[in-house]
Design goal:
alpha/beta, 63% helix, 10% strand, elongated, 603 residues, Rossmann fold, 6-stranded mixed beta sheet
């Protein structure tokens, strides 16, 4: 076997991956403000306990200074014991307040993550195929998981560290000034340097973070394609090629991560160096003051403690600010999903009831995929009536599947209309469309669960008798009975534990369980052998005799008995009629028939 290897994702000069639009700046504060509003009580409790524990932490060095200067230095044991007991009490308050602050902060962070994931998932549920194709499945998964986690991490760090940093810095500096004004000049000189370092961190981390998120998307894309297409990869022996694809994206992600890590390491080391130099300067100045009697040793110890606390507050702030650029990029990516208006809009006053006849009318529908130069469908007409079968046939790329996807509003056409019982589908409630149409897609997909749970996607309230009836009609009852647990047999995600033909028949049974008035079969018999195909079509002719059927098929034998056959060619209707009429008058249809059947079979 031969074949061209699948191309690696191309990247332009600004490292944008296909399918991903440039990320808008900003949105982090707006996102947090919107989704933290319901959790204001948790935030308030976190702030209260953080303030309490910070005040307690700042009070301890002052108590320690008094204990050393007035107790230890003078040999006053009672003073030492009294102040020691007070210090223990204050420390105990600090520990309890810190524990409650972390608890409430974690609850707020987890609640934010839950709400964001729910919002993104709900928005994706509203997307049509156009939006799904635009973002790509790997990117949407990354935005729902990794990007949300980045914002969660920033929030918990912000509530537990960044919140106490300014209180610690301001309070520590005020108490340091109260102890010794000249010595506080060393701390005041350190603060601007730390501020400049934080500004440079943010400016350097934003582009690095953006690249990291994009390369995470790329790695996820390669992994998803590899797992989904593993059979093709093995069949064409493209393992080495796939490893090279993954290695390229993995190396890009590693390089972007290392770049961000180098920024963090450089500025972290710079801040630590400045802090250590400040401590050395404090000890040197303080030692001179102790030597000339203008300062006591307890005061110097307290001053060093405050310097350490201020340094720690700056380092904590720096750690949070290192996370902020990545969270900012993640918020912009999430905001982009949430702000994307689905191309399939929800009607303001949807129609919730239909006549229930099952009459389908597609009139002059035109559809163009995003980025395509020409429409894939042009002024296409199609009708289906109760008790009749309408078939659609054409060459590959003629637009057959696209036409079927327009009927249940998986897409909306540029022009024209799709009507069920005389009502435009754009005016119908989604639940009405779901009840009216049963669609078996070209690629039958089964969800992880059991046979029964998959069939009940058609009707959650269906009993076992209904399921078995649908299986009998779909020619699937025999192999389901042969399964270890029958209806309760576990099906792997995507239906990987059953064959292609079994998967198609289970998907047909799922549609039959719903008992809609219109059935759409998108090449749903392609994996069936001729005998099973014939038996299935015979059973369907009895079971859904009163329903409207639209069948897309590649095999002429599947649709030759249809009441109406629509021939598509390059997105246009090339002819409509019965098998005999088209065979005589339509050269496109005649060519398709002659390529599959002998003259005797065609007649």
């Amino acid at each position: 076997m031969t074949g061209n290897p699948p191309p690696s994702p191309e990247r332009n000069r600004d490292h944008t991956i296909p399918g991903e639009s440039p990320q808008p700046e900003g949105g982090l504060l707006r996102l947090l403000g919107e989704y933290l509003r319901p959790h204001r009580r948790l935030i308030a409790l976190t702030v209260v306990f953080q303030v309490v524990q910070t005040i307690a932490m700042l009070y301890v060095p002052t108590l320690n200074a008094d204990l050393v200067d007035k107790g230890v230095a003078t040999g006053d044991t009672d003073y030492v014991l009294r102040h020691g007991a007070v210090m223990i009490g204050v420390t105990f308050v600090q520990i309890i307040a810190a524990a409650f602050a972390v608890y409430f902060g974690a609850r707020a962070s987890m609640a934010l993550g839950r709400d964001l994931r729910r919002a993104v998932f709900g928005q994706v549920q509203r997307f049509s195929g156009r939006e799904i194709d635009r973002f790509g499945a790997p990117s949407l998964i990354t935005r729902t998981t990794n990007d949300v986690q980045q914002i969660q991490s920033l929030l918990i760090m912000g509530l537990t560290m960044l919140l106490i940093a300014p209180i610690t810095a301001v309070g520590g500096l005020a108490l340091a000034l109260n102890l010794d004004v000249p010595l506080s000049g060393v701390l005041l000189a350190f603060i601007p340097i730390a501020t400049i370092a934080i500004v440079f961190i943010i400016r350097a981390m934003i582009p690095a973070s953006r690249l990291m998120q994009r390369y995470i998307d790329a790695v996820n894309q390669v992994m998803r394609e590899h797992i989904t297409g593993i059979r093709v990869i093995r069949a064409f022996v493209r393992d080495d090629h796939e490893q090279r694809r993954f290695a390229e994206d993995n190396e890009n992600l590693t390089a972007a991560s290392l770049k961000a890590g180098r920024v963090q390491a450089f500025f972290g080391a710079t801040a630590m160096l400045c802090g250590n130099l400040a401590s050395i300067a404090i000890v040197w100045v303080g030692a001179n003051q102790i030597a000339n009697g203008s300062m006591q040793i307890g005061t110097l110890i307290a001053f060093l403690t405050y310097a350490g606390q201020i340094l720690g507050a700056v380092m904590m702030s720096m750690g949070v600010f290192m996370m902020a650029p990545r969270a900012k990029v993640a918020a912009a990516r999430i905001r982009e999903v949430l702000d994307t208006e689905p191309s399939v809009s929800v009607p303001d006053a949807p129609v919730t009831e239909l006549a229930g006849l099952g009459e389908l009318d597609v009139k002059a529908v035109t559809y163009r995929y995003d980025g395509a130069e020409s429409p894939v469908l042009r002024e296409v007409d199609l009708i289906a009536r109760p008790g009749q079968t309408t078939a659609v046939i054409g060459s590959t790329g003629a637009g057959k599947s696209t036409l079927l996807n327009l009927i249940p509003r998986l897409f909306d056409g540029e022009s024209g209309s799709v009507r069920i019982d005389g009502v435009d589908v754009r005016e119908l409630d989604r639940s009405v469309i779901a009840r009216s149409i049963g669609m078996v897609p070209q690629r039958a997909y089964l969800f992880s669960g059991t046979v029964a749970s998959n069939l009940r996607y058609g009707d959650p309230n269906a009993d076992d008798a209904t399921l078995w009836r649908a299986l009998e009609t779909a020619q699937a009852a025999d192999f389901v009975r042969a399964m270890p647990d029958g209806l309760e047999t576990v099906i792997g995600q995507g239906g990987t534990t059953v064959s292609g033909g079994q998967r198609q028949r289970l998907a047909i049974a799922r549609a039959l369980v719903a008992r809609p008035k219109i059935y759409l079969f998108d090449d749903s018999f392609s994996a069936l052998d001729t005998a099973t195909d014939a038996a299935l079509r015979k059973a369907l002719s009895v079971e859904i005799a009163d329903a409207s059927q639209v069948i897309v098929a590649q095999r002429v034998s599947t649709i030759r008995d249809a009441d109406r056959i629509v021939v598509l060619e390059a997105g246009r209707v090339a002819g409509t009629g019965t098998h005999e009429e088209l065979l005589e008058s339509n050269p496109v249809y005649a060519e398709i028939v002659n390529s599959q059947l002998t003259l005797q079979e065609a007649a």
